[in-house]
Amino acid sequence: MTHTAGAGRPRTGATFLVLCLGILSYALSQSLVSPVLPTIQHHLHTSQSTVTWVMTAYLLSASVATPVLGKIGDVVGKERMLLVALLALGAGSLLAALASSIGVMIAARVIQGVGGGVLPLVFGIIRDEFPRDRVSGAIGTAAALMGVGGGLGIVVAGPIVNTLDYRWLFWLPLIVIAVAAVATHLFVPESPVRAPGRINLPAAALLSAWLVALLVPISEGSRWGWTSGRVLGLLALAVLLAAAWIAVELRSAEPLIDMRMMRLPAVWTTNLVALLFGLGLYSLMAFLPAFVQTPPSAGYGFGASVTASGVFLLPMTVTMFFSGLAAGRLGLRFGARAVLALGAVLLIPSMVLLATAHAERWTIYLVAALCGAGIGFAFSALSALIVTAVPPAQTGAASGMNANIRTIGGSIGTAVTGSIITSGAVGGLPRESGYTHGFWFLAGAAAVALATTLLVPKARRATVAEPVREAGTLVPAADN
Fold first, then answer.
1. Which CATH architecture has domain 12-199+256-475?
2. Which stretches make up the Major facilitator superfamily (MFS) profile domain (predicted)?
3. What is the pLDDT of residues 146-164, one digit of tens each?
C-alpha cells in the first residue's frame, strides 16, 4: 500500500514533534527515579533490597511490553497502540505519585513499564508517514532523544527533589505524558500499513515468561548469590522457556516475532551490537553517579550531591543529542554501519580514560561527553539499521525486539559491573580498584562492540530507500 504524508494527512513536522514528546516522556519516566532510590526508600519505610524493585519491576515490564506492543501496533494500528502506551505510562505515573507504600509504588512502576512500547511504535509511524529522504534523520533524532531523556532525568532529579518533593518526579512527567497523549490523538495519523493476522497469544506468554525468568536472577544475582539455587534454577528455566518460545514461533503461521526476520544478517548482528551498547550505557548511568558521590575520604570520588552528580553527566546529555541529530546525515553519506562503528570508536577511549585517570573532575566531564557522542551515534544507527532491514509490516516487532535487547544488555551490564565494583567493598563502600576493574570491563565491552560492527552487512548508502530481500521476496523498504 502506498501513501504520502500529503493532502488529507497531518504535516510530518507536527507529527514528528508529537512523537518526540512521547519518547521524551517515556525516557524521563525511566531515568528520573534512579538517582533518588534512597529518598524513596526513606519515605516509604522499606529496605534497600526492596526499593531496588522500583527499577527492576519497571525494566521487567518494559522488556515484556516493548516487543508485544510493537507487534500489536503492526496488526491493529500504531497510532492506536501509541495512545495505549502513553495512557499506561500516565496511569502508572499517577499511581506512583499517590503511592503510600512500596507495594503500590512497585505496582505503579509495572504499569509505567508498559510505556516501553512507545519506542518501536514511534519508529514504525515515522517509516509509514515520512518521505523516504527524511526517515533516516527522523529515526536518528528520535533514537537520540531516548538517550537524551535518560541523561536529562538524572541531571534534573536532584533539583526537583530539593525544590519540590520526590513525588514530583512522577507529577511532572504525568503533565508531559498528558500533553503527548492529547497531541497524539490530534496530530498523529493512523497508518494504513498493517500486518495481516492476529496476535499469537501463546508466543506472547512464552516471550514474557522467559524474559522474566532471565532478568530477575540477573537483577538479583549479586544479592541472592550467583551460584545460589534460585539464580541457577531461574536461568535454566529461562533457557527452556526461550527454546519453547522459538519452537512455537517457528511452527506458527502468524508468529509474534518472525524468526526468519531475526535470522537476517542485518538483524541479528545489529541486535548483538545493541546488547553491548545497552550494557555500556545503563552501567555508566548506574555507577558513574555513585562514583562521583563517594566522599573523598574513601580515597577517590568527589563527594558530590545528587544534584551535582547530575551535572557531571550533563555533557553526556548534550553530546548525545547533537550526535543523534548528525547521525542521520552521516548515515546517508557513509552508511549506518560506519556511524555505528564511530559510536564504538568514541566509547572505547572514554572508558579507558575513566579506568586510568578518574581523579580529576575534567576527566569525568570529558568521559561523559565522549560517551554521550558515541552512544548517540550508535543508538541512532542501530534504529536505522533495523528499520531498513525489515519490511514495513514488521517494523514495530523488529524495533521492539532491538530496544528490548538493549534493555537486556543493560540488565546484564549493571549486574556484572555491580558485582565487579562491589567485590571487596569495605564499610559499605567499594574500593577504588573495584571501580577501576569495572570501568575496564566496560572498555572491553566497547571493544567487542566495535569488532561486532564489522559483522553487520554493509548496505549501500541510500539505506532508507533501498528494497529489502526476505525469504526470497523483494519487499519495499518504505511505504511512502
1. Up-down Bundle (1.20)
2. 15-461
3. 777 877 887 888 889 888 8
